[in-house]
Amino acid sequence: xxxxxxxxxxxxxxxxxxxxxxxxxxxxxxxxxxxxxxxxxxxxxxxxxxxxxxxxxxxxxxxxxxxxxxxxxxxxxxxxxxxxxxxxxxxxxxxxxxxxxxxxxxxxxxxxxxxxxxxxxxxxxxxxxxxxxxxxxxxxxxxxxxxxxxxxxxxxxxxxxxxxxxxxxxxxxxxxxxxxxxxxxxxxxxxxxxxxxxxxxxxxxxxxxxxxxxxxxxxxxxxxxxxxxxxxxxxxxxxxxxxxxxxxxxxxxxxxxxxxxxxxxxxxxxxxxxxxxxxxxxxxxxxxxxxxxxxxxxxxxxxxxxxxxxxxxxxxxxxxxxxxxxxxxxxxxxxxxxxxxxxxxxxxxxxxxxxxxxxxxxxxxxxxxxxxxxxxxxxxxxxxxxxxxxxxxxxxxxxxxxxxxxxxxxxxxxxxxxxxxxxxxxxxxxxxxxxxxxxxxxxxxxxxxxxxxxxxxxxxxxxxxxxxxxxxxxxxxxxxxxxxxxxxxxxxxxxxxxxxxxxxxxxxxxxxxxxxxxxxxxxxxxxxxxxxxxxxxxxxxxxxxxxxxxxxxxxxxxxxxxxxxxxxxxxxxxxxxxxxxxxx
Length: 584
What we know:
The chain is of the alpha/beta class. It is 52% helix and 12% strand. The chain has 21 helices and 16 strands. A seven-stranded parallel β-sheet has the order 5-6-4-7-8-1-9, sandwiched between helices. A seven-stranded parallel β-sheet has the order 12-13-11-14-15-10-16, sandwiched between helices. The protein has a two-stranded antiparallel sheet with strand order 2-3. The longest helix has 52 residues, at 506-557.
């Protein structure tokens, strides 16, 4: 958040938060959190953000980017007339005064980052009258919709769930929004959220302030900045695309791919025994390591996309409390998470590119503290490691070491892991059976609910989305291919010695253009239908107004009503006469 006495010199600014013209409630919250001096990114961003300017900021991981946009957003809201008119009752409940509207939106790529940002926002806003709400997947959508209808001042959200509410939840809108913030913008783009972000912006007011933050800077981030920002102030507090200065880096060679797990187990039992995050390339690899660690008697927690949201939060909490010494993770945990007491980050598999390496190792050596990054590689991966070293290790002041693991220790752990094979297969079969039973129960409950609440379900309005699942999947695949191509291009030797190219082939280009044309046609068709409906409604209303005015004019002049009205009156008279004769 801010610098403390233990922070490194490169993060110290020598000034106090009070010099940034923050109000007393925010200064009080900062003091209770133990932070008195802003980091360079906070010192440079907060004054510009308070002026209402668009900001494009890049800084190293763990340098306090989150507070650099939360503090100015809170300060601007605290100075607004609506917030200043609020009071608290005897029980401390907030009494809203004046018009209520959502004024700030923070978009983050993952649920864990959104939860972390919301927790920091709660700590900073504890002495203010500002309201806030978390909107992310994995939580009850109906509760979030109810909170959004009450128009909280700040919404912290993931793009998909936020866009879902904007499109399909009644009385949820962002027309009065004043501030939009993209955190971890490069990760938002990597996960394929570019279209969601642009759709969310279309639902917001045009006179907004937009801020974009990232630890790495690439062409995708620059393209998003051109579309979303207007004459932004560019802030680069530290060297871009570089690891922290207090990070020690080690590279460990595994004799072969089959012995990679043995090397990892040897390191985790002899050297790195506490506060270790281990990054794997896939969810399957992370879960296999979890089974190996469990059979080896090591304390661990795992976090990846195949886990339920509650299990993921619980795993992070266990690691934070020290109940688990090792956290087995995919790149899901590589961005922005501020985990306490992380001493070592181990790359079990090599990251795809330098930016992912920077984000992974950024989980340690945060806020000026020291840390260590260990990367395991095989002889076949030496070229990638050499390129990674040129990009991330050539201009750092900290140590860069090569470590070797004793062959007898590797052989010993390799034999142990081989002995676990039958147990791992049995655990896998048992988990597969449990998964099938759980899905069967889920589908049975879903079928029962559909039958029981059929009328209520069919009465609900149909949900809409700006593109189909197939189009979304193809866009994600294309974004992943582009990221891989950029990584391969960065690894190519200079001078054009390699024939590989980072450009997609003609077939992929044609497919992307086709998907874009289809999406544009669908949007044009929807816009035309909407315009046609509005025109029909306008004509009907105009005709009704003309008829009403014409009848009123005739009544004022004492003229006979039009023929149709005369016929109606004659029919009514005949009916009344017939009823009179019947009674006689």
